[in-house]
Amino acid sequence: MSKIFIYILIFLGMATPVMGATIHGVAYEWCTFEPIKGVVIEVNSTPKQVVVASNGTYSFNLPTGSYVLKAKYFKNGILEYYCEENITITQEGDYTLDLLMLPAPFEETLFGESIDINVEEFEEKRSIGYLYLIFLALAVVIMFAYLYLHFYKKRKERLPEDLPDDLREIMEILTREGGRMTQTELRKRLPYSEAKISLMLSDLEDRGLIKKIKKGKGNIIIKL
After folding, report:
1. Which residue would you say has higher pLDDT here, 103 or 147?
2. pLDDT band at 111 (very low <50, low <70, confident <90, very high)
3. What pLDDT score was predicted for residue 84?
4. How many CA atoms lie within 13 A of 203 on its CB side?
5. H-helix or E-strand containing 7?
6. CATH code of 208's domain
7. Can you give the pLDDT at residue 53?
8. What pLDDT was estimated at residue 156?
9. Within this chain, do residues 62 and 43 fall inside the same structural domain, yes or no?
10. Residue 130: exposed, middle, or buried by beta-carbon count in 10 A (0-12, 13-18, 19+)?
11. I need a surface site. Which of 40, 56, 150, 182 has the fewest CB within 10 A?
12. Distances in whole angstroms, Cα of residue 144 to Cα of each of 90, 140, 147, 190
C-alpha cells in the first residue's frame, strides 16, 4: 500500500506543470512604428530560444527567472536595428512585450560582431596624411613664390615703351654692368656732357628706374 502511495506522489509530481509564462509581442521600427519583418529574436533561456519574426511578431514560453531578450534586424548582412530588454518572470501568465527597434550602435557590424579598430594604426595613417598635406602645401607655396619672383623680375627688366632713346641707353649700360656703376664710369661711356648726364639720371630716378647713392665726391648709380 505504501509503495502505491509513493508511486502516486511521483506521478503527481511529474504531472505538475512547471510554473512559467508566455512572453509575446511585436518588433516595431523606431521612426515609423511599423512592424519589421524578418527580425531575429533570441532569449538566453536554457536551452536558448531563437525565432525569426517573419511578420514582426514573436512568442516565447519561459519558466520563472530573469532573462535577456535581444532582437536584431539585418539588411544586406549588416546589422541595422537592435533592441535588448531585461525581463524577470515571477509568476505564470501571459505578457505582452513590444520591442522598439533602434539604429544599431556603431560597435556592431556583420551579424552583431564588434568592429576591431587598430587605433595606433589609424593614428599613424592620419599622421602620414597630415605630413603629406603639409609637404604639398609647401611645394605649392614655393612654386608660386618662384613664379611671382620670376615674372616680377621680368617685368622689372622691361623698360617703359615711352622711354627716350638716350635714357634707354643708360639703362642698357647699367644692365650690362650688373645694375651698378659709378656716375664717373657712366659718363665715360656716353657722348654727353656731365650736366646732361646729371639731368638724365635725375629723370630716370624720378621714373623709379634707378637710385643714386652719394659716396665721396661722386654718385653710385643702382638699377632698380
Report:
1. 103
2. very low
3. 95
4. 15
5. helix 2-15
6. 1.10.10.10
7. 93
8. 53
9. yes
10. exposed
11. 150
12. 79, 6, 5, 41
Distance CA 170, CA 164 (A): 10
Whether residues 22 and 78 share a domain: the answer is yes
Nearest-angstrom CA–CA distance, 117 and 211: 67
Looking at the structure, tell me whether residues 24 and 66 fall in a common domain: yes
- In terms of average pLDDT, the best of 1-5, 140-144, 152-156 is 140-144
Evaluate whether residue 201 is within a structural domain: yes
What does the pLDDT look like over 46-70, one tens digit per residue?
A: 999 999 999 999 999 999 999 999 9
Q: Average the pLDDT over 172-189 and give the result.
A: 89
Residues 24 and 39 in one domain: yes
Question: Both 76 and 137 in a single domain?
Answer: no
- 179-182 contacts: CB < 8 A, separation 24 or more? 179/222, 179/223, 180/220, 180/221, 180/222, 180/223, 181/220, 181/221, 182/215, 182/218, 182/219, 182/220, 182/221
The structural domain count of the chain equals 3
pLDDT reported for residue 16: 44
Domain that holds residue 128: 117-158
How would DSSP label each residue in 20-78?
Answer: EEEEEEEEEETTT-PBPTTEEEEE--SS-EEEEETTSEEEEEEESEEEEEEEEEEETTE
pLDDT band at 152 (very low <50, low <70, confident <90, very high): low
| Nearest to 25, CA basis, from 111, 81, 101 | 101
Q: Position of cell 665726391?
A: 217
